[in-house]
Amino acid sequence: MGKSKLQIPKVCKYCGNTFLAKTVKTGYCSHQCASSASNDRKKMERRQKVLDKIKAAGTEYITITEALKIFTTSRLTVIRMVHSKNIRCFKTSPKRWFVCVKDLEALFPLRSKPIVVETPKASQVFDMNPKNCYTIGEITKRFGITESSVYKHIRQFSIPIRQIGNYVYAPKKEIDKMYNNKNARK
Ligand SMILES: [Zn+2]
User: Fold this and answer.
1) For residues 169-175, average pLDDT
2) Which of 38, 24, 29 is closest to 11 using CA atoms?
3) How close is the Cα of 158 to the center of ligand 1, in Å?
4) How far is CA 164 from CA 20, 44, 115, 121, 169, in A?
5) Gap from CA of 116 to ligand 1 centroid (Å)
6) Domain boundaries, the chain
7) What distance in angstroms lies between residue 142's CA and the mean position of ligand 1's atoms?
8) What is the distance in A from the centroid of ligand 1 to the CA of 2?
9) CA of 4 to the centre of ligand 1 (A)
């Protein structure tokens, strides 16, 4: 195939900027973004391996130090989530905390970068203020669905999401609308 003169507007999967791609397969705006994405992927794979090992061993609780090696979060966030009862925890000493792997997985999906969602239609204005958003964790709890389904639906319905710190936020209004319609259709 000869060099194509295609210029396809795309959103970089790493930095989220729009750029003109020369092939339909191009996913990144620059070599830098492509290599950062590949590094991220490797990092994620390493983390996934550690997590798989833990799960294969049937371990349900790990120390916070172990948790931080796997999940992209901070000690303070984990401690806060324990206090707010979002993560089950037990202590063998005041300094030795064991936190529930399943809870961590639900709250801190293995991911180092925000997921880039295609820009919504210009006519739509979304309220991305965290106060008016649910976190993905909140959505799974509120509507009783798995995280992967939430992401699937978000993509399906082109609902914008935004990552702040360790949380991915989606506008309450859109999520409510989506799931209420879904229920109504059943
Ligand atoms: Zn980029």
Assistant:
1) 91
2) 29
3) 21
4) 27, 19, 12, 22, 8
5) 11
6) 59-107, 130-185
7) 34
8) 25
9) 21
Rounded to two decimals, the pTM is 0.50
Q: Where residue 63 falls among pLDDT bands split at 50, 70, 90?
A: very high
Residues pairing with 163 in the sheet: 168
Those residues with Cβ within 8 angstroms of residue 174's Cβ, 6 or more apart along the chain or in another chain: 126, 157, 159, 160
Give me the DSSP letters along 74-116.
-HHHHHHHHHTTSS-EEEEETTEEEEEHHHHHHHS-S-SSPPP
C-alpha of residue 20 to centroid of ligand 1, in Å: 11
CA 34 to ligand 1 centroid distance, Å = 7
Q: How far apart are the CA of 170 and the centre of ligand 1, in A?
A: 22
The pLDDT-based confidence of 185 (bands split at 50, 70, 90) is very low
Q: How far is CA 34 from CA 13, 29, 38, 116, 163, in A?
A: 9, 8, 6, 14, 20
Enter the tokens of residue 62: 């790990």
CATH fold group of domain 130-185: Molybdopterin biosynthesis moea protein, domain 2 (3.90.105)
CA of 43 to the centre of ligand 1 (A): 18
Q: Which two tokens stand for residue 68?
A: 């931080």
